[in-house]
């Protein structure tokens, strides 16, 4: 089991406790395969030198302060990011509150007051497109220059490509919202997931079609309306079920609000989970309106059989979750 990282939520909390460290800085939304390459290098260097492998991310996303109209919908919460970083060996994470004051720090002020003054950095690793400081005035060359001045090493990790395409959070977001969760998972190096509470439904499924778990999630990014092969993970017990899930508006029953409903392929024994992680593995079809509840039920059972074939094939080729290592 991955050990949870130490999470600091302010500079005051981190000051005097964070260093000496090897640090990577970024939004890291989604913690995709490119981010993971940086974290693996952070861990490697930290272990070589006896420093702490660390990351600094921001909450809220800086764009929400400096350009709210361009702020992206986020793939992960800060705490989800920290947990995903820990899976790559990051031992401590500073979730820095991004305020107007932080936004107005010049590149040198950010280095002097934050990186050196509070975090005791010994090396900083960033991606090739890294920018920092007021109005993005600092780039990787400026960071390296300031590192020489203030006594820390700087290393730029090249961007990661998959089959010729650059891996980025914006591209992953586009893929998910178009329904291509399988390709998004390859870029993430894990299945895309959302988390939330299981809430009472309208009772239609159990009465007229099949029983489902109804997920209320605060996730900002959801796959396009449709039916997906999924994995449902109970966050309380870590029990996992193969499942098939519908994201949509339940047009057969005249629905008008978006819902996320999952049909477990194995019968639920005991109480339903209270809080789950829903992992999207593959899109099966678009959502559509059926002439009757009976015809919808027949289609759900066909979807379930296709999902079972998917999981049988997955077990045949690997005992691990579908992922890509770069």
Q: Can you tell me about this structure?
A:
- This protein has about 325 residues and is α/β, with parallel strands linked by helices.
- The chain folds into 2 domains: about 5-160, HUPs (Rossmann fold, 3-Layer(aba) Sandwich), CATH 3.40.50; about 170-315, Elongation Factor Tu (Ef-tu), domain 3 (Beta Barrel).
- Helix content is about 35%, strand content about 25%.
- The chain has helices spanning about 10-15, 35-50, 65, 80-85, 100-105, 105-115, 140-150, 170-180, 180-190, 205-210, 295-315, and strands at about 5-10, 20-25, 50-60, 90-95, 120-125, 155, 160, 165, 190-200, 215, 225-235, 240-250, 260-265, 275-285.
- The strands form 3 sheets. Strands 1-4-3-2-5-6 form a 6-stranded parallel β-sheet, sandwiched between helices. Strands 9-10-13-12-11-14 form a 6-stranded antiparallel β-barrel.
- Helix 6 packs across helix 7 (about 140-150) and helix 8 runs antiparallel to helix 9 (about 180-190).
- It starts with 5 loop residues before the first strand and ends in a 9-residue tail after the last helix.
- Mean pLDDT is about 90; it is low at about 320-325.
């Amino acid at each position: 089991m991955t050990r949870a990282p130490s999470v600091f939520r302010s500079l005051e909390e981190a000051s005097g406790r964070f260093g000496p460290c090897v640090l990577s800085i970024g939004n890291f939304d989604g913690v995709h395969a490119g981010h993971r390459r940086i974290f693996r290098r952070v861990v490697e260097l930290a272990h070589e030198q006896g420093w702490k492998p660390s990351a600094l991310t921001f909450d809220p996303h800086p764009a929400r302060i400096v350009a709210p109209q361009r702020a992206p919908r986020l793939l992960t919460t800060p705490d989800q990011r920290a947990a995903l970083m820990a899976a790559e060996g990051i031992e401590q994470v500073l979730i820095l509150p991004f305020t107007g004051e932080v936004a107005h720090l010049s590149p040198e002020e950010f280095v002097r007051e934050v990186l050196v003054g509070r975090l005791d950095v010994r090396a900083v690793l960033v991606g090739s497109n890294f920018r920092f400081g007021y109005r993005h005035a600092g780039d990787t060359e400026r960071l390296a220059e300031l590192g020489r001045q203030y006594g820390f090493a700087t290393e730029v990790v090249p961007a990661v490509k998959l089959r010729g395409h650059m891996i980025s959070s914006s591209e992953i977001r586009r893929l998910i919202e178009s329904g291509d969760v399988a390709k998004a998972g390859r870029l993430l190096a894990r299945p895309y997931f959302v988390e939330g509470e299981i809430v009472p439904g309208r009772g239609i499924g159990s009465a007229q079609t099949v029983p489902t778990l109804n997920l209320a999630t605060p996730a900002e990014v959801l796959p396009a309306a449709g039916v997906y092969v999924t994995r449902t993970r109970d966050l309380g017990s870590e029990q996992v079920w193969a499942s098939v899930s519908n994201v949509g508006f339940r047009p057969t029953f005249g629905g008008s609000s978006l819902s996320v409903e999952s049909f477990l392929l194995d019968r639920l024994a005991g109480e339903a989970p209270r809080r789950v992680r829903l992992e999207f593995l593959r899109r099966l079809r678009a959502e559509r309106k059926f002439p009757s509840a009976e015809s919808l039920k027949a289609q759900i059972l066909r979807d379930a059989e296709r999902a079972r074939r998917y999981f049988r094939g997955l077990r045949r080729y690997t005992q691990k979750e579908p992922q890509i290592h770069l």
